[in-house]
Amino acid sequence: MNMDENLQRFLRYVQIDTQSDDTSMSVPSQAKELDLSRLLQKELLELGIQSEINEFGILYGRLDGEEDLDPIGLNSHVDTALEITGAGVKPQIIHNYDGGVIHLNEKYSMSPADFPTLGDHVGDDLVVTSGDTLLGADDKAGVAIIMAVLAYYVAHPEVKHHPICFCFTPDEEIGRGPDHFDAKRFGAKYAYTVDGGIYNEIAIETFNAAHADVVIEGVSIHPGEAKGKLVNASSVAFAFDALLPKHKKPELTSGREGFNHLVQVSGTVDSAKLHYIIRNHSREELEIQKKEFEEAAKAIQEQYPTAKVHLTIGDDYRNMGEVFKEHPEAVDKAVEAFRALGYEPVFPPIRGGTDGATFSFKGCPTPNLGTGSYNHHGRFEYLSVKEFNIMIEIVKQIVKA
Ligand SMILES: [Zn+2]
């Protein structure tokens, strides 16, 4: 039964260390990311599919199909997150999960009380970590799903399908994944990143993202003779932060509510710096947030006329939902596939970004699909084998003629 073969593939991929590195300036950031890409290239060749790993470490390939149909793209990333090591991954399989506490090792266990999604998988087989590493289902589950779909269509030439363009990218976890993505080279009319959690979510909306840097120059004078003259740049920085709307913070918002997030502070008496990221699904509201930064800067400058307040604001990425308004076919096709198999998809707005957003703005509309994996970026990461197999069926259905 090829169900097992699909799971074997996943288990094989997670045992290869492909952690990317945000301190490295090389492309890809770590040569070891390509250890997986090269294995994929070899496995593809065994399926009779040619592929190319280009100078940026992106593996591109194509499985020909019905040439009068739109070529559909599939993507996932080979690297794993930085929060915890990806070396020495020893996946453990929990057969027929009973809903109780899972002991990963002597030190770490996970229970539905701490991780409520576990309660949805009673009776499933789960793949968990040994407690010492991440699992790397983000995104090797996505890689394994795409490989399973390709293997299926190679084994079943009688089942007609769209031409399938696929690519496996490095450095997604350090935000550089799509930098060198070439939509022309990829060749798909539209595509899917397979890089999410629960199986029935289609992500078609991201934040609009901007950032703000505030630099304060104070007036530094010996504290003994400071009265009426000293302006402490760090205190002015605190005052600036206090002027921003109190409720627009990540810890106080959810769903479609935007936020300003103070991610870095540094300061002395003489000068201080604040770095914020600004997020909102609505572009109009993002503009309002930027205005609030400008107003706060103006007010602070008036309050401390001998200090200097410099504010710079820049845009980072846009909500990919804009692209799907113009090009709904990728979303429609996925919805059709879910329904054909008896599932109803949901569309929660992502409170973050996705490589698909960049692909979409580079000309290849790309919603994101789930992989059936949970608790990414840590030792409690796990895969529901049932949902993983559902996603193989969904992706097969999407590209089916
Ligand atoms: Zn991912």
Describe this structure in words.
This protein has 10 helices and 17 strands. The protein is of the alpha+beta class and 401 residues long. The protein folds into 2 domains: 285 residues, Zn peptidases (Aminopeptidase, 3-Layer(aba) Sandwich), CATH 3.40.630; 110 residues, Alpha-Beta Plaits, CATH 3.30.70. The chain has a 7-stranded mixed β-sheet with strand order 1-2-8-3-9-15-10, with helices on both faces. Helix 1 runs antiparallel to helix 3 and helix 8 packs across helix 10. The longest helix has 21 residues. The mean pLDDT is 96. It binds zinc ion. The site of zinc ion has 5 residues, from helix 3.
Kindly summarize this structure in a few lines:
This protein is α+β, with helices and mostly antiparallel strands. It has helices spanning 2-14, 33-46, 137-155, 183-186, 233-243, 283-303, 321-326, 329-340, 355-361, 385-399; strands at 51-53, 59-63, 72-77, 92-94, 102-103, 109-110, 126-128, 164-169, 190-196, 202-203, 208-217, 259-267, 271-280, 308-317, 368-370, 373-374, 382-384.
